[in-house]
Amino acid sequence: MASIASVTKQFTTLEISKNPINNPSRPPCAPSHLKPTRKPPIINIGKYDGGFEIDNEKRGEKVYGEAADDLALDSSTSRTRPTREWKLTDFDIGRPLGKGKFGRVYMVRTKCEPNYILALKCLYKSEIVQSRVEKQIRREIEIQQNLRHPNVLRLYGYFHDEKRIFLMLEFAGQGELYKQLSKKGSFSERRSSRYIDQMADALQYLHSKHVIHRDIKPENLLLGINGELKIGDFGWSVHAPGNRRMTLCGTLDYLPPEMVEGKEHNEKVDYWALGVLTYEFLVGCPPFEDKNSANATYRRIAKVDLKIPPHVSPDARDLISKLLKYNPEERLPLSEVARHPWILKYRPKSTSKGGSEA
Ligand SMILES: Nc1ncnc2c1ncn2[C@@H]1O[C@H](COP(=O)(O)OP(=O)(O)OP(=O)(O)O)[C@@H](O)[C@H]1O
């Protein structure tokens, strides 16, 4: 097992080469990965000063966004280098935003002017080593740090101390999409269509960068301050320049037939997941869910045993069934998803795809 010192060394020397992620080996997924536990340890990253809420106009603070490249890592060169060294004392620590498997996420504000607000994710190195996910976390950082898209959560940089790794993330002001879906049960056709439009755009961007996400599901989606969708978790993604990968991973309900059957797969796994997501938004549960057993779900996926409830509109039904095709090559390409009547019907005329009037 790797030592904390070796993880520290990895993060000290983390640099982005021209082809950084050419060996995305991952330990075979145990069933526990397919059914993630949601009981992370409680970890403190330091003094909590009582917190602050966003009130940008009054305080003159900026929410860390597209224009905040002055604080981000400089990726203009092939070897990404920090434009400055960050440390915990550079931030005022605000309210906790949530807990993950390896640590807590806090809203923070940079002490230096202008006062940017962002999310600081703290990961304990000992937990990472214990769970043997060093490579996975490293890959997640390498991938996410190089992505720039309005519907992909930005990772501005990272720093670490002896015990912890801190990720400087774009602040997603409206929190988790999953929570809203649980609260509402399902989304309207308009809202679902707006999200799927943004997802398709983000996935097209990722695939153009040879990144396959492989773990699209509501739990991995956040919402920005204007309700725009943000893909926020790259823990299972791979950088696959022209390669097909054999490893089985992803969330059970979102696995495509080729992965269930242990076959090779490519970026079209994300097309399938987009179909599952569309269904779950509209219906409130994933299409092949079988609460009796995982095997029953696998069987339903392999047969593409798809039953769409009658309340789903014909256009949405058409899109779902064109994405949920057994043969990956027959799945509707993302460029055509963007032109599908169900997407065009709800796309605002004048605005870009970035926002969502949920
Ligand atoms: N950038 C962010 N902006 C706002 N809230 C966030 C942000 N990142 C995370 N959160 C909140 O913090 C919680 C924990 O996030 P984290 O990414 O650590 O864990 P997770 O995605 O729930 O699980 P896992 O540890 O399996 O990745 C999220 O569920 C979310 O509520």
UniProtKB/TrEMBL annotation:
The active site is at D215 (proton acceptor). Keywords: ATP-binding, Kinase, Nucleotide-binding, Serine/threonine-protein kinase, Transferase. Belongs to the protein kinase superfamily. Ser/Thr protein kinase family. Aurora subfamily. It holds the Pfam family Pkinase. SUPFAM superfamilies: Protein kinase-like (PK-like). The keyword Kinase applies. It comes from the Eukaryota. InterPro entries: Aur-like, Kinase-like_dom_sf, Prot_kinase_dom, Protein_kinase_ATP_BS, Ser/Thr_kinase_AS. It catalyses: L-seryl-[protein] + ATP = O-phospho-L-seryl-[protein] + ADP + H(+); L-threonyl-[protein] + ATP = O-phospho-L-threonyl-[protein] + ADP + H(+). This is Aurora kinase. GO terms for molecular function: ATP binding; protein serine/threonine kinase activity. Residues 17-40 are annotated as: Disordered. There is a cross-link at K217 (Glycyl lysine isopeptide (Lys-Gly) (interchain with G-Cter in SUMO2)). ATP binds at K101, K121, E170, F171, A172, E219, N220, D233. Its EC number is 2.7.11.1. Residues 91-343 form the Protein kinase domain. GO terms for biological process: attachment of spindle microtubules to kinetochore; homologous chromosome segregation; meiotic spindle checkpoint signaling; regulation of cytokinesis; regulation of mitotic cell cycle spindle assembly checkpoint; regulation of organelle assembly; response to mitotic cell cycle spindle assembly checkpoint signaling; sister chromatid segregation. One of its GO terms (cellular component) is chromosome passenger complex. It is an enzyme of class 2 (transferase). SMART domains: S_TKc (SM00220).
